[in-house]
Amino acid sequence: MNLFDLSGKVALVTGGNGGIGLAMAQGMASCGASIVIAGRNEEKAGPALASLRELGTRCAFLTGDVTKKAACVKLVADTVAEFGRLDILVNNAGTAVRKMPQDYTEEEWHLVMDTNLTSAFLCSQAAYAPMKAQGGGKMINIGSMMSLFGAPYATPYASSKGGIVQMTRAMATAWAKDNIQVNAVLPGWIDTDLTKRARREVPGLHERVENRTPAGRWGSPPDMAGIAAFLASPASDFVTGTAIPVDGGYSIGM
Ligand SMILES: NC(=O)c1ccc[n+]([C@@H]2O[C@H](COP(=O)([O-])OP(=O)(O)OC[C@H]3O[C@@H](n4cnc5c(N)ncnc54)[C@H](OP(=O)(O)O)[C@@H]3O)[C@@H](O)[C@H]2O)c1
User: pLDDT for 2-51, tens place per residue?
Assistant: First the structure.
């Protein structure tokens, strides 16, 4: 038995058209999974799909704004309609608005909470029935170092990512008997569009991260591929409710 074999499995990755989501999709594709990537930006989807096809996987892009319940329900339904099943859901779509807590508008708070946390709740809720009917599944939620730490410019982001960990634990306990494993991944500082923007806005951030990370470097998206393959595969069938840092040691260093 190949513990990491994902042949015949179908994965839906929100925000899978770039960054960490695409790298996780590639990790699962390289183990044999078919992949559906979802997002709003169709331009990014072309190269993302091409990279997945190079791995020999069957794949598709679905457009959807995961802040809307109807879109989450439709993403799951369309995946099942097109690929016949849904085995793995990666709740990866995310955004950030950097401000001091006193300066956020209510709309900005909701944008970050809805994109990062409510979307994961809604997609998981939609995915539950098809996974249960199939006899099991894997849900992988993307947290952050902000699931563990606070920061002055990240109140809604940290709230949403802290919520991801607790939502993961709650759903893991609810659905363990249905053979659905629910886990969170907490990336450290990874070089993506999201953090490129942070590096532009925060002088000295690049060096601060390098110095604070025991591995001495930023992560790159491919650093996230292995954890996706593990949490999507039979190798993790008795692993549920965890929040696993993939951070070059950032969360355990001084
Ligand atoms: N990079 C890091 O250092 C880091 C660290 C910890 C956690 N994370 C988390 O990792 C995840 C991926 O981030 P990333 O760094 O890879 O950034 P990214 O490249 O900006 O990816 C974010 C993805 O989310 C999608 N997205 C955003 N809002 C959406 C919406 N309303 N509906 C559908 N899709 C939406 C985007 O797709 P569209 O543009 O097509 O909408 C995009 O593909 C996020 O949850 C982020 O919080 C990142």
Answer: 999 999 999 999 999 999 999 999 999 999 999 999 999 999 999 999 99
Whether this model's pTM surpasses 0.85: yes
List pocket residues of ligand 1, CB cut-off 6 Å: 14-15, 17-21, 39-41, 44, 65-67, 92-95, 115-116, 142, 144, 187, 189-190, 192-195
Q: Which of 75, 92, 119 to mutate to test the pocket of ligand 1 (most atoms within 8 A of CB)?
A: 92
157 is catalytic: yes
Q: 111 C-alpha vs ligand 1 centroid, how far in Å?
A: 13
Looking at domain 10-244, its CATH superfamily turns out to be: NAD(P)-binding Rossmann-like Domain (3.40.50.720)
Quickly list DSSP for 125-186. HHHHHHHHHHT-EEEEEE--GGGT---TT-HHHHHHHHHHHHHHHHHHHHHGGGTEEEEEEE
55 Cβ partners below 8 Å, 6+ apart? 26, 29, 30
